[in-house]
Amino acid sequence: MSETYVALLGTKGGPAIRPGSAMPTSNLLCLKGERIVVDCGLGVTRGLVDQGMQLEDLSTVFITHMHSDHYLEFGPLIHTAWTAGLKTPVDVWGPQGMQANWDGFVLSMKADIDLRIADEGRPDLRDLVRIHMLDAGEVLRRGDLTVSAIRTAHPPLVDCFALSFRTDATHVVFSGDTAPLPALEDFARGADLLIHEAMLESALPALLARVGNGSDKLMEHWLRSHSFAHDAAKTATGADVGMLALSHLIPSDDPAYTDRHWRDAVEGFWDGPLHIGTDGMRIIL
Ligand SMILES: [Zn+2]
Ligand SMILES: [Zn+2]
């Protein structure tokens, strides 16, 4: 298979799901048949299968940061792939904390894992996963694929990364979660596709009234640690990318706000091809 595309599997920002909402963040990057999973929010396993992926082929996973909307289903994805026939190693790049997350997961599933090894003859799941520390700089070079990372502005977290996947033919950049980040323009310079997180400014007061905790803390977090749609659009224009996809959408479940509102929000800041993320959307490169 030589298809090259990004599938946005989960496109909402934040871990909560509610009637009508999208699923939290996960993506499948398919580069000339090589499949790379970027983030493992709730729903990633179903999302991959819905893209036609055989889970036993899972080999490469990146986790941008340790917020649950990006890694809650990491362990369950690997375990489900194992029960679907995974026998080969899975290389995982993630920030500090991923090893502890994995160790805790397999400990919590020890009885089931031991049982399936003894009863079904499966290989030991604990030996199949190799966690690598994700840090800024060049992360991986494999064939003609180069993966690199920069730190984003996502306080209070320090280890949150934007990721660049570049081959001879294709360049895709994920913003990760971030406040407006000037360094992203150089990092994404000339990319075919920038997938950038986005909030809809006009929708935030209603969202806060609906899901807030009675204080201003949630609004303060949004403003300090995330980007508006027009910020993403400005970055895309500054980086001169080929396409912009908005994902990690906040809000994602307010019927009062539609595709039109997102398009209006970037008008005047970006005039290239624009994708407003929906779960399962496949962007051909
Ligand atoms: Zn997030
Ligand atoms: Zn986050």
What does this protein look like?
- This protein has 285 residues and is an alpha/beta fold.
- Helices cover 29% and strands 27% of the residues.
- The chain has 10 helices and 14 strands.
- The chain has helices at residues 44-50, 68-71, 74-83, 98-108, 110-120, 183-187, 204-211, 217-225, 229-239, 259-266; strands at residues 5-10, 26-31, 34-40, 60-62, 90-94, 129-133, 137-142, 145-151, 161-166, 171-174, 193-199, 243-250, 274-276, 281-284.
- A 7-stranded mixed β-sheet has the order 6-5-4-3-2-1-14. A 7-stranded mixed β-sheet has the order 7-8-9-10-11-12-13.
- A hairpin with a 2-residue loop joins strand 2 and strand 3 (34-40).
- It is globular.
- The two termini are 14 Å apart.
- 42% of the residues are buried.
- The model has no long low-confidence stretch (mean pLDDT 96).
- The protein binds zinc ion (2 copies).
- Residues 65, 67, 154, 177 line the site of one zinc ion.
Features:
single chain, 285 residues, alpha/beta, seven-stranded mixed beta sheet, 10 helices, 29% helix, globular, binds zinc ion
Would you summarize the structure shown here?
With 285 residues, this protein is an alpha/beta fold. The protein has 10 helices and 14 strands.
State the major sheet. Answer: 7 strands, mixed
Radius of gyration: 19 Å
Give the overall silhouette.
globular
Strands of the widest sheet, in order across it, are: 6-5-4-3-2-1-14
Unreliable spans: none
**Structural class computed from helices and strand pairing:** alpha/beta
Q: Percentage of helical residues?
A: 25-40%
Per DSSP E runs of 2 or more residues, the count of β-strands stands at 14
Approximately how much beta-strand content do the residues carry?
25-35%
**Small-molecule binders:** zinc ion
Order of helices and strands: EEEHEHHEHHEEEEEHEHHHEHEE
Number of helices: 10
